[in-house]
Amino acid sequence: MKNKISLININKLKNHEMVCLKRLKRVKDNLLVKGYIKNPVVVDRKNNIILDGHHRVAALKQLCVNKVPAFLVNYQDKNVRVFLRRKLKLAGSIKQTVIKNSLSNVLFPSKTTRHLIKNRPRNINFKISKLFNKY
After folding, report:
1. What is the pTM (predicted TM-score) of this model?
2. CATH classification of the domain holding 64
3. In a 3-state reduction of DSSP, which class is residue 128?
4. Dist. CA 10–CA 58, nearest whole Å
5. HEC sequence for 44-93
6. Within a domain: residue 56?
7. Is 17 noted as a catalytic residue in this protein?
8. Shortest CA distance to 68 belongs to which of 133, 8, 130, 24?
9. How far apart are CA 60 and CA 11, in angstroms?
């Protein structure tokens, strides 16, 4: 799995979890104060599903940015593991349910899943000012 960060159109991303408004405010305030996004969001490259970073993406949307730094992964790769933080009955594997629900716009509650990705990039400190389209 490569450690490459891509800038992708924020409107192409699909959620699989809801966003907590209280947490969203904290994340947005933090982005405004610091002026950069510390960690890239993690996205399934095949379906553009956000695996980690729902609150960052929602905050960046509120700030009207056009792009988001993303670490694109093959969700089926064995180095991408997912666990449930809540007890839920699933009709299939967690990964299958995440994909199916996201594509059907049936979202889990906030912080339902925890994705662990081996060798994921951290501390990229990408300036928010570079995420706007320059016409």
Report:
1. 0.91
2. 3.90.1530.10
3. helix
4. 9
5. ECCCCEEEECHHHHHHHHHCCCCEEEEEEECCCCCCEEEEECCCCCCCCC
6. yes
7. yes
8. 8
9. 11
- Give the CA angle between residues 85, 53, 126 to the nearest 5°: 145
Q: Which residue has the tokens 């509650």?
A: 109
| Parts of the chain with a pLDDT under 70 | 1-3, 89-92, 134-135
Which of 71, 31, 79 minimizes the C-alpha distance to 51? 71
Q: Do 60 and 128 meet the contact criterion of CB atoms below 8 Å apart?
A: yes
Residue 3, SS3 per DSSP: coil
| Residue 3: predicted pLDDT | 62
- Does 132 reside within a domain? no
Contacts of 35 (CB under 8 A, 6+ apart): 127, 128, 129
Instruction: State the catalytic residue, choosing from 10, 13, 17, 102.
Output: 17
**Domain carrying residue 86:** 5-126
